């Protein structure tokens, strides 16, 4: 019990809140850019207004796009919420609004799922509980909250832990035969990249995909450890920058590399962030001054991992507005059970594929929400044979009128989406008076292999339900 109490006290004792402040500003700015970019490129209409059918997540079919101009209003609200996070204006409300709206959009259609969207949802959820508006914020400037220079070190640790989980599980997922012993899918992806300036000739070397595969696995498995160590954090961050800029150049993955580059800066010692805030305060003179750097150094609260005894002694040297009062700490103890459940789920969800038989890269049971980043290259085609049991008549069902080109491409190699659309077709025909059986004719190429049948074409998909094991109605990979 004493160990447990000591651990909780350590989490709730004060440290500089500067890492949270710079994290908030960077994250809000990146989210504002992402939302505006999404709008500018016409993706709101393409992904939420044009399709006549949406691939829902299991039990979440009630999450639908808003009608009319509703989605444009939703994205406008999301942009204002991102501004609120960045500037610290109505920060708590802004964080909640952004988390809810962003996650709502993410869950409308499986087609649009990306690991970095999931990451943004998790980070915005954690920001709801973090006191990241207590300095360098309009909330402080307008008197909505009281300025504080410190917060429990717990709030910095939760973001570091989330980033470490992402990297570690991304690396663990790469420990498979295709990635390490066949250099796939990188061998497939790097073909045709010889035209790139400077690095193009190197990408044509036969050993390059192998080097990138092994380096990527080792990098993901270990980078979080070197970011945690004060002696290596800056060198590790240089590796983060180089790695993510290279992936940004080679692959069209949007702003995710920049999100990771700026988010991992939270591993830097608090003194670095204090200097950033001081520099920002000089640039934006309407914010109050930031005299905390020297005072916190004197109090001993800028070390990367201060000992518990140092924290106790240092807290007495701080003025009361620094946020170290025992009552404030006690009020936050309710967060420990919530965060325990949150991180337990984060540790278990990526392992759930072990509960299902077969290769997760083929059957994709347990694939999403598990940090399987850029692990597989699938391409193929699918069409449906529909048979009316009462008349015996067969026909080929047309899909382009209900699905966008992006949905059609994604559906070809995602079995749960193939199944969902089969049920949609069957129910539509049933409402028209038919008694349908629906069969899929699907073929995919998987990580450079020759094309093969994906879904068994002798099984009526109307008799298959989402909870059934996919090994019952999919072909075995070759």
Structural class based on helices, strands and sheet pairing? alpha+beta
Distance between the termini: 54 Å
Taking all residues together, what is the mean pLDDT?
A: 87
Shape, please?
globular
Percentage of residues in helical conformation: 40-55%
Number of strands: 6
Low-confidence stretches: 304-327
Let me know the largest β-sheet.
4 strands, antiparallel
**Going across the major beta sheet, what is the strand order?**
4-3-5-6
Tell me the series of helices and strands, N- to C-terminal. Answer: HEHHHHHHEHHHHHHHHHHHHHEEHHEE
Count structural domains: 2
Rounded to an integer in angstroms, the radius of gyration calculated over CA atoms is: 25 Å
Separate helix tally: 22
* Strand residue percentage: 5-15%
Task: Tell me about this structure.
By secondary structure, the chain is α+β, with helices and mostly antiparallel strands. It has 2 domains: 2-349, no CATH class; 377-472, no CATH class. 53% of the residues lie in helices and 7% in strands. The protein has 22 helices and 6 strands. The chain has helices at residues 2-12, 18-40, 43-49, 70-87, 91-108, 115-129, 138-141, 154-173, 177-181, 186-190, 200-203, 208-228, 233-250, 256-263, 270-283, 292-299, 308-315, 326-331, 335-348, 360-363, 405-411, 415-431; strands spanning 14-16, 150-152, 378-388, 394-397, 436-446, 452-453. The protein has a 4-stranded antiparallel sheet. A two-stranded antiparallel sheet has the order 1-2. α2 packs antiparallel against α14, α6 packs antiparallel against α8 (154-173) and α13 (233-250) packs antiparallel against α14 (256-263). The radius of gyration is 25 Å and the shape is globular. It starts with a helix and ends in a 25-residue tail after the last strand. The relative contact order is 0.12. Mean pLDDT is 87; it is low at 304-327.
